[in-house]
Design goal:
By secondary structure, the chain is mainly beta. Helix content is 3%, strand content 38%. It has 1 helix and 16 strands. Strands 1, 2, 4, 5, 7, 9, 11, 12, 14 and 15 form a 10-stranded parallel beta sheet that branches.
Length: 179
């Protein structure tokens, strides 16, 4: 709550953080705040490992069980891995956020999802791979649904159950996604 109210930075300097309950790292508000990972001696970034194996049809939506959720603006995620979420690895519904050197892998809905109201976000140097289909049937690397002016720079998506990049665009309603 302090990070959401006053801003600041969480620094991760450990190989893995295991989360074994339905807990979400949620960043809200408009204060500048972020999560920064310190590269480990192995060369890997710190991993937020969501060790939750139970998913059923009674869950309201996979986006409510994401690993990290950005509802506010001016948030920054750098040098982290988010994996094994039963929803999206990272769910963004805030504006003017930046993801840099983030890896989203082995998640059960999408690696990185940018939803409506997630306008003007920058996703750079990010990888999203081996994301699976759950009962909601997504399995996409980068999923943009309803956001405008999203910039992808030097990103890659591969070996996902569904699409690498999906914009949810329909020809009657373009969203101005830049890649």
């Amino acid at each position: 709550d302090i990070l959401n109210e006053k801003g600041g930075m969480i620094i991760l300097n450990t190989p893995v953080i295991y989360i074994t309950e339905h807990k979400v790292l949620k960043l809200t508000g408009t204060q500048k705040a972020g999560i920064l990972g310190i590269r480990q001696p192995s060369g890997e970034y710190p991993s937020i490992y969501l060790d939750i194996h139970q998913i059923d049809s009674h869950m309201p939506s996979p986006k409510f069980f994401s690993g990290i959720e950005l509802y506010g603006g001016n948030k920054y995620l750098k040098n982290i891995i988010v994996e094994h979420s039963i929803g999206s690895g990272i769910y963004i519904k805030g504006q003017n956020n930046t993801l840099d050197h983030v890896i989203a892998r082995y998640n059960s809905y999408s690696g990185i999802q940018i939803d409506t109201e997630g306008d003007n976000n920058v996703i750079k140097n990010c990888y999203s791979y081996r994301n699976l289909c759950n009962i909601y049937g997504e399995g996409t690397g980068f999923l943009v649904s309803g956001a405008k002016n999203v910039l992808f720079e030097n990103c890659a998506a591969f070996d996902n159950a569904n699409y690498g990049f999906s914009s949810g665009l329909d020809s009657n309603n373009p969203k101005n996604i830049i890649s």
